[in-house]
């Protein structure tokens, strides 16, 4: 499970960066559609590999944002942002300490 969550780190961060920029400042990052499409494909692939319907559904939601645009789907963007934040909180990257860790040595 830990390795699975670590595999989610890259697409989670990509989606978070795009959505936080949009939701907080109404800024669309250059290449946002390609970034979200790539993350969507990664979520879909990982979800299928793990038989995890939640991750597959997240990938579909991200692709819906790409297809329909962020300005037109602010509520969905907020929902996806919340899901991604929850997943990011669960992800541990090997070798990196978490805020709640007592020891912060690398």
What does this structure look like?
With 106 residues, the protein is mainly alpha-helical. 71% of the residues lie in helices and 0% in strands. Helix 2 packs across helix 3, helix 2 crosses helix 5 and helix 4 packs antiparallel against helix 5. The longest helix is centred in the middle third of the chain and has 19 residues. The mean pLDDT is 88.
What is shown here, in short?
By secondary structure, the chain is mostly helical. The protein is 71% helix and 0% strand.
Question: Characteristics of this structure?
Answer:
106 residues, mainly alpha, 71% helix, 0% strand, globular
How much helix is in the residues? over 70%
Write down the overall mean pLDDT. Answer: 88
Overall 3D form: globular
**Strand residues, percent:** under 5%
Give me the number of helical elements.
Answer: 5
- Name the helix and strand elements from N-terminus to C-terminus, one letter apiece: HHHHH
Uncertain residue ranges:
none
The radius of gyration over CA amounts to 14 Å
Helices and strands in order:
Blueprint: H1 2-7, H2 9-25, H3 32-50, H4 53-68, H5 74-90
Helix pairs in contact: 2-3, 2-5, 3-4, 4-5
């Amino acid at each position: 499970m830990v390795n699975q969550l670590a595999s989610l780190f890259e697409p989670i961060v990509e989606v978070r960066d795009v959505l936080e920029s949009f939701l907080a400042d109404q800024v669309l990052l250059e290449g946002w559609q390609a970034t979200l499409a790539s993350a969507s494909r990664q979520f879909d692939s990982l979800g299928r590999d793990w038989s995890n319907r939640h991750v597959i559904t997240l990938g579909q939601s991200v692709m819906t944002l790409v297809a329909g645009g962020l300005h037109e789907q602010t509520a969905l963007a907020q929902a996806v942002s919340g899901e991604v934040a929850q997943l990011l909180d669960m992800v541990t990257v090997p070798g990196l300490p978490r805020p709640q860790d007592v020891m912060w040595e690398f």
